Amino acid sequence: MSNALPKEQQSPYQRWELASFGDERPSARANAPSSAELAQQVTSTREQARISGHADGHAQGLAEGRAAGLNEGRLQAAQELVRLRHIAETFGSEVAQANDVIADDMLDLALDLAKAMLKTALSVRPELVLPIVGEAIRYLPSLQQPALLFLHPDDAALVKDHMHDELDKAGWRVAEDIHMERGGCRVETASNQIDASASTRWQRLAAALGKDLDWLQP
Question: Whole-model pTM above 0.85?
Answer without folding.
Answer: no
